[in-house]
Design goal:
350 residues, alpha/beta, single chain, 12 strands, 12 helices
Length: 350
Amino acid sequence: MPTIIEVAALAGVSTATVSRVLSRPEQVSEDTRRRVLEVVRTSGYAPNVAARSLRTLRAAKVLLTVPDISNAFFASVIRGAEEAARDAGYSVVVGDTRHDPEVEDQYAEMLSRREVDGLIFLGHRLPASLQPLLSRKGAAAPIVNGCEYSADLGVPSVHIDNAAASAEAVEHLVGLGHREIGIVTGPQASPISRDRLAGAIDAADRAGLRESLHIRVGDYAAGSAFVHVRSLLAEGVTAIFCFSDEMAMGALSAIREAGLSCPEDVSVVGFDDLPLARYFQPPLTTIAQPKGMIGRRAVELLVGILRGGSPVRQVTLRHELVVRHSTAIPGATHGARPRQPEPNPARGFP
């Protein structure tokens, strides 16, 4: 394997320039960076990460914790984070906390022990063990939140406007003519669940339908929605809005078990736009989140902090209502096309 000295000679630059290209590429001109990276690629050069960590006191790793790694939503966020981290010269360590505060603290201790350079957490709790670090370093603490936003956390965050997205979903159902609407929320301990519920209630209030909402508290999993939707159907709802696509899948199952059809008897809206949402039967109307971009921007915020930049307090990404065949006018005949929403230039992805 070639050495850094040989790479520098082949590229016609100094060893310091090679090092900057690999660790701080923004400090090197585009032409030089391209020339060095081409030599690195063709020569098979690989930097000695362990030695570099000892010299710089950097682990060249970031920790990303997720509350439920089995949830397909987080897989897309992780992929976006890994791509951005690799571009910045970091690797990603992923931890599954399983909604357990004790496990969250155990992972967070990796940051305290400097086994990782920074932390991105996708849950709604800041690990208690990191509060002293946050109090001491403030905005310079290498901690970023993804997906959930609460000003009380005191750390930079990347998220969508969950209240606006939820309001748009309810407005879609109201626009189709639905009046009795079931809502299956996530846990109320979650800020995004509270924001989504607030948005749904606000949209219903504007339509004069607040008293027509039938609200159940779920847990983002299909099983909880399956149970709740059975009772919602008994209350005569004609549409159901679930705060995750996974719960929407449970809702569709409960509708079929009751001998009803979607959307002919009951319309269903989900949230997240998981890769399989378009293949549900029927294809699912849902709120699309830019999942990969959430991961990418969270890493970019964290790397900015690690490189001494001015931290951005929050980044709000755009969402999109994706209308498919699980929503229709109440009592629509079999095969009726869903009514498309009016174009809104403020929505959609960049």
